Structure formats: structure tokens, C-alpha cells
Amino acid sequence: LQISGYLNLLANTIDNFTHGLAVAASFLVSRKVGFLTTMAILLHEIPHEVGDFAILLRAGFDRWSAAKMQLSTALGGILGACFAICAQSPKGAGETVAWILPFTSGGFLYIALVNVVPDLLEEKNPWNSLQQVLLLCTGITVMVLLA
């Protein structure tokens, strides 16, 4: 088995931990924010997990081992949610949410931009670059409208 598979599992566990933080903190704000955050993370996670599964297969894991390892990384999400709930201040959930949501949002933006911007800079076709920038702006607009 290649080390890249284990590194991917570690990164996926940390990613799931931040997802758990975000979901739990969002539900501390309100049900609506919690459900919106959960849906956004689910829409992100489905293709992400499929990609991670393919990375594990390429790293030498068999299908069953890769599936079990992917499932075990979900424990990171549970730990993140438990951490967010246990980190509540005696003064209320507001102080907890005041640092968890900006932390997780910043992390998600950083990861997205680190993955997207280098590809945009390497794109040779200006029409493809324009399409990607427009879709990125559309995504930001949708987030603003939902907020």
C-alpha cells in the first residue's frame, strides 16, 4: 500500500472533523442554518468521497478495505460534532458559534481556492477560464442569497 492512501485517509478524517464542527455549530444557531449547512456538506461530500475511494484504490487498497477505511474516517465528523457541543460556553451557544463557524468557513474557502485557483491559472482556453470564474461567482451569489 502506498503512503498516499494513508495521507488521504488522514486528510479526509480532518476534513470530516471540520464538517462535524460546522454541522453541530450550525444547529446551535438554528434548525434552518443547521439543515442548510448539512445539505451543503452532503452535496460536497458525495463526489469528494467517491474521489477519495478512487485514490485509495489507486494506492493499493482493495475495494472492501477502501470502503471500510472511508467509513472509519466518518468518525472524524462525529468527533467534530461532539467537540462543538462540548465546547459550548456556560454563557450559551453564541460564544461557541462565534469561533467555530468562521474557523470552518475559512477552512472550506481555503481548500476550495487552493484547489480551484491553480487550475484557473493553468487553463489555456480563455473561454473555459471565464466559465469557471462565472460559476465560482454564481456559487458565491447563491450563498449570499441563502444567507
UniProtKB/TrEMBL annotation:
GO terms for cellular component: membrane. The chain crosses the membrane at residues 69-87, 99-117, 129-146. One of its GO terms (biological process) is intracellular zinc ion homeostasis. Its main location: membrane. The keyword Transmembrane applies. It is found in: Membrane. GO terms for molecular function: zinc ion transmembrane transporter activity. The lineage of its organism: Eukaryota, Metazoa, Chordata, Craniata, Vertebrata. It catalyses: Zn(2+)(in) = Zn(2+)(out). It holds the Pfam family Zip. It is a multi-pass membrane protein. Keywords: Ion transport, Membrane, Transmembrane, Transmembrane helix, Transport, Zinc, Zinc transport. The gene is Slc39a13. This is Zinc transporter ZIP13. Belongs to the ZIP transporter (TC 2.A.5) family. InterPro entries: ZIP.
